[in-house]
Each structure stands twice: as C-alpha cells, then as structure tokens.
Amino acid sequence: MNNDIEQVLYSQEEVNQRIDELAATLTAKYQGEFPVVVPVMTGAMMFATELMKRLPFKLNIDYVDVSSYEDNSQSSGRVRLLRDLSHDVNGRPVLIIEDIVDTGHTLQFLNKLFASRGAKSIETCSLLDKPARREVEVNADYVGFEVPNEFIVGYGLDYDGLYRNLPYVGILKRSVYEN
C-alpha cells in the first residue's frame, strides 16, 4: 500500500499531536455539556476513536453512516442516510466527527437533519478540510489540517475500500485511481 502513496502529508505523530490539541479545545468547550458525539462512518472511525479516548467528560457515542459517492472517487452531491442514530438529540448538543469536509454535502445534510430533530447545538470536528472542493457553504468548527485538492487516503480515508488502515494521511498516486 505504501508504494501507492505519492506523498505523506501528515505522519502518525503529527496526527496524534493535532488530536491532542483538538481534544483539549473540545474538553474546554463541552465539559459539563453531555453531548451526543456522532462519528460519520466509516471514514471517521479511526479519528473518532482516538479523539474520544482523549475526552474526559460525559458523552454519548452514536454514529451515522451516509453515502454521497456513486463510484469510488466522485461525489454525486446526493446524500443517503444508510444508518441513523439510536439516541434522541432533542435538546442535546451534537458534535459531528468527520474524517474530511470535502464538497460539504454530507455536513450540510447532517446539520439539517439534527436541527430538525431539535438539537441544542450542532458542531463539527473534522480531521481534514479540503476547501478547494466545497460545493455548498459549510465549515467545520474544529479542524485538524487543511489539505490540498488531491485524492487523500489513510487514517480512515479510503479509495475503493482500501488504505483506511494507513497510520498517516497521504496523497494517493493518480495512476491508482485513474485507470
């Protein structure tokens, strides 16, 4: 798998350091708030797990599974909810955990969904942000790293179900996904 990576953007050590920083910020914000923390599966799994282990306050963990990709590399812009929450978010703060904010469609969809269910507040913490690909006006409240407009894999992000288990964030070689 490592041979398919053009460039490592953020090493495992850099990712861990940034997660520590994000956890400190979130702890200051949510101490005593009892939020529902909602990772967006499957991409946010690794980031969410590491982040939540560092949050020393009461929270509920739930998750959603959504899809906006019709093929393996291009967003369709239409978001489908594949797995819904089991917790009621009415009157509760919701913290969405994302792997990457790309086109913004997923985040826009989830913000509207949780607002319609009466969430007290809705914020997003994303490991990565790719503003060059944004198609709708949304932003994460807390961001680990901004990435270039390249095909990013590793640390939960995939291409065709592969590369999620890389312990770093890297750029996938074009030859891998353009064939």
Count the beta strands. Answer: 10
For the record, give the distance between the C-alpha atoms at the N and C termini, rounded to a whole number: 17 Å
> Could you please say which CATH topology applies here?
Rossmann fold
N-to-C series of helices and strands: EHEHEEEEHEEEEH
Q: Could you say which overall geometry the principal axes of the C-alpha atoms support?
A: globular
Tell me, what is the CATH class? Alpha Beta
Largest sheet: 7 strands, mixed
**Unreliable parts:** none
Which structural class best describes the helix and strand composition?
A: alpha/beta
Note the total helix count: 4
- Counting copies of identical and different chains, the oligomeric state is single chain
What percentage of the residues does DSSP assign to strands (E)?
A: 25-35%
CATH architecture: 3-Layer(aba) Sandwich
Mean pLDDT: 95
Percent range of helical residues: 10-25%
- Overall structural domain count: 1
- CA-based gyration radius: 16 Å
